[in-house]
Description:
It is built from eleven helices and 22 strands. It has helices at 13-24, 51-58, 61-66, 101-114, 155-159, 218-223, 272-288, 295-304, 307-318, 320-329, 333-345, and strands at 2-3, 6-9, 29-33, 46-47, 70-71, 74-78, 84-88, 97-98, 118-121, 125-129, 133-136, 139-142, 145-148, 166-167, 171-178, 186-191, 195-201, 206-213, 234-236, 240-241, 247-250, 253-257. The strands form five sheets. A seven-stranded mixed sheet has the order 7-6-16-17-18-15-19.
Amino acid sequence: MxxxxxxxxxxxxxxxACATVCARGGxxxxxxxxxxxxxxxxxxxxxxxxCWPILQRLGAAAAVRKAPHxxxxxxxxxxxxxxxxxxxxxxxxxxxxxxxxxxxxxxLLENTRESGAEVLHEKTVTKITPGWEVExxxxxFHAPILVAADGRNSTVxxxxxxxxxxxxxxxxxxxxxxxxxxxxxxxxxNLFHEGYSGAASIGNGLWNVCLVARPGDLEQLxxxxxxxxxQTWVAIAPLTREPCSPLHRFxxxxxxxxxxxxxxxxxxxxxxxxxxxxxxxxxxxxxxxSTTQTYPQQHATLYRxxxxxxxxxxxxVSHPVWASRIMEHLPGSGLLLRLLxxxxxx
Length: 346
């Protein structure tokens, strides 16, 4: 049985950030993931400005800038009646950026390996025994600390029977497609009766296109974009889920949850990668300092000051007709646009 100080389940931004901090702090770290990398994932592929200080602390910022990416110059929201509202974005090296998740994850994981962590892919976690003894891919690994960084449908949370309730009212699908030159550097949100779509320029001449709708409305929403019949999609659900406590103890063995495993935010806000990076970094810092008892409070503080805009966004995109009418007819439409785009710009 291979032994480590920390096992991290999940090698997305949250898991990579946590593992990097732990390894640099002198802990032996194993990262496990069931997926085969590189891989695409349902994600807006957006790094908002708050991500850059974290990427710099992790030592990955320079590599991200060298990868194919797009610097956003404006956010556009298009209502159901095709009214367009535009918000220009600040420019500079630390602005809003689009980068494909397969590229971002590869950079973060290479950084994690260089920091001293061991990373194993195509290792599905099948059994967990407090202590922690983790069975994955036919092998058994042991560590006194376990970190769940395996997403909104966390296998670790399910196996430990701590998965919170989820709403199965909506599904998200994502694809990539060629972008026209006039849309380079643009983030566009379309509010439709069936749901909403988000499109972002991500470099290499590509759009990232995400659609969010109730399952029965998804095909009609796709039809608005005139996608080719052979278009390839990836999907994820649920989009809305109750938060899970970020720290549990089983037989005195700490289990920390980071990223979407702990709390899911409305994808419309474009904040998912930020929360993943920062919660992973916080968890890693607590583990290095042996202060895991402080992690729940730090985690709560991370979300507390930002979730009110997430709630506004959730209600807006859950009721696109209502949101469209407000933006089209009320004097506060400019304020609503700024609120909805606040998390894109800072």
